[in-house]
Amino acid sequence: MEWRSKPRACTDGRDIEARANMLAAASMGATAFQKGLGAVHAIAHPVGSWFDTHHGLTNAVLLPYVMQHNRSAIAGKCEPIARILGLASPGFAALFDWVLELRRTLGIPQSLGEIGVDVGNASTIGEQAARDPSAAGNPLPVDAAALERIFHAAVAGDLEAVD
Predict the structure, then answer these.
(1) 126 CB-near residues (< 8 Å, 6+ apart)
(2) Element (H, E) at 109
(3) CB atoms near residue 45 (< 10 Å)
C-alpha cells in the first residue's frame, strides 16, 4: 500500500477501500499500545484533564513536538516507515514533514494554544506527565523538566524550542 496525496478516508467517507485501510491502521495502532505510548500520551493526559481537550486531537497536536524531542532515538527507525508511505527520502526529515503536512491536510491545529491551552500551570503539567505511566515508554528518558519544555513549545507552536 502506498501513500496517496490526500487521506481519502477523511475526504470521501463513501470510499470503502480507504475506510477499510483506516480500520486496519487503527487496529495496528491499538497493537502498538503494547509497546508503550511515550511522551505524547504522557503530556496529553494532564492537558486533557486541565483543559478539557479531546484526547486524540491533543495527541495529534503534540506528536511533532515529541518527535522532535526524540529525534536522536528514532531517526534510524524512520526508513521503513518512509518507504511504506512512498516518501522520496528515507530519513527523519521526510517523515517529519509528512506528519506536518498530514496535520495541515486534516485541519489539525499546529499548537496547543490554538485549542485553548495556556502555559499557566506548565510545571504541574510537566510533573503530572512525568508520573504518567506512558512516560516510561518514551524512546528517550524524560523527566518533568523535559516534558514541561515540550509542553511549552507545543503551546507556543515553536518546534525549534523543543530542545
Answers:
(1) 144, 145, 146, 147, 148, 149, 151
(2) none
(3) 22
DSSP 33: G
Q: Is 127 exposed, middle or buried (0-12, 13-18, 19+ CB in 10 A)?
A: middle
Distance CA(65)–CA(94), nearest Å, equals 15
CA angle 132, 48, 64 (to 5 degrees): 80
- Crossing angle of helices 55-69 and 39-51, in 10° steps, is 140
Q: Which amino acid is at 99?
A: V
Measure the CA–CA gap between 32 and 68, rounded to whole angstroms: 20
> Distance (Å, rounded) from C-alpha 54 to C-alpha 115?
9
pLDDT digits (tens, 9 = 90+) for 19-56: 887 788 777 767 666 567 899 999 999 999 999 999 99
> Is 62 in contact with 44 (CB distance < 8 Å)?
yes
Nearest partner of 154 among 70, 63, 93, 38, judged by Cα: 63
Between CA 65 and CA 62 the distance in angstroms is 5
Average pLDDT across the chain, whole number? 89
